[in-house]
Amino acid sequence: MKKQQMIFGIHALKALLNNSPERVIEMWALQGREDERLEPLLALAASMGVTVQKASRKVLDEKAASTQHQGVVARVKPAKQLGENELDDLLANTETPFLLILDGVTDPHNLGACLRNADAAGVHGIIVPKDNSVGLTATVSKVACGAAEAVPLFQVTNLARTMRHIQDKGVWIVGTAGEAEGNVYQADLKGSLAIAMGAEDKGLRRLTRESCDSLVSIPMAGSVSSLNVSVATGVCLFEAVRQRLS
Predict the structure, then answer these.
(1) Domains defined for the chain, CATH in brackets
(2) Average pLDDT over residues 27-53
(3) What is the 3-state secondary structure (H, E, C) of the chain?
(4) More confident residue, 9 or 34
(5) Would the pTM of this model clear 0.90, i.e. be above it?
(6) Whole-angstrom Cα distance, residue 188 to residue 177?
(7) How far apart are CA 231 and CA 234, in angstroms?
(8) Are β-strands 24-30 and 72-76 bridged in parallel, bridged antiparallel, or unpaired?
């Protein structure tokens, strides 16, 4: 059974209280801190029936295992793990699905940033493999600034099989690869779409790459050969947004 976890940061906890207040077990705020950023969060917690205890900065640092908690920490029940069945439900109830596939992203800061990009771009869900991929940790939630509570994360056993399954449902999968002949600005990113992004250092695995309908690259004009996965994800998602809005 997945253990309870600590969530911290003003945006992450605001999103949690708005979306799943029943998950909050305990909540602590920095003793003596009263400002316009924290007070609305404490009022929201009170309106949800969540009691907030006051604690010193040292105690909050220890509970969060981080100094980046912004003066608020909560112990929460684990989020329900979403998988293939819930993904099917999303596909059945979404007219033009817009998905993000992350293959082997193991850095929580990168996953958090990708979640934030996905939320801003209007992505309906993110698909990741259960193995060799980071899950929804406290760091992911903090970096995501609330997006971890807003964008469903589907963890699947066999990524290549899931990709074939969503293709059968009419979703076109565009993967990224540095050696691809066509670039992201030339690709058709309208309609039911999933964009597949590879891990920080290795890119898409062979089976994942072979499961894509097409591959695209991001044009690089300088001496740097590649972008951080979260930056590359933002580039691709918002090119899709531009096309879908035009």
Answers:
(1) 5-76 (3.30.1330.30), 84-245 (3.40.1280.10)
(2) 91
(3) CCCCEEEECHHHHHHHHHHCHHHEEEEEEECCCCCCCHHHHHHHHHHCCCCEEEECHHHHHHHHCCCCCCCEEEEECCCCCECHHHHHHHHHCCCCCEEEEECCCCCHHHHHHHHHHHHHHCCCEEEEECCCCCCCCHHHHHHHCCHHHHCCEEEECCHHHHHHHHHHCCCEEEEECCCCCCECCCCCCCCCEEEEECECCCECCHHHHHHCCEEEECCCCCCCCCCCHHHHHHHHHHHHHHHHHC
(4) 9
(5) no
(6) 16
(7) 5
(8) antiparallel
Residue 4 confidence class, pLDDT cut points 50, 70, 90: confident
Q: For residue 119, give the nearest of 87, 152, 80 by alpha carbon.
A: 152
Average pLDDT over every residue of 50-78? 91
Q: What is the percentage of the chain residues whose pLDDT exceeds 70?
A: 98
What's at 221, amino acid-wise? A
Question: Edge-to-edge strand order for the sheet containing 52-55?
Answer: 5-8, 72-76, 24-30, 52-55
Alpha-carbon distance 224 to 241, whole Å?
26
Residue tagged 């976890």 (tokens): 5
Backbone dihedral angles phi then psi of residue 24, each to the nearest 5 degrees = -80, 125
pLDDT of 50 above 60: yes
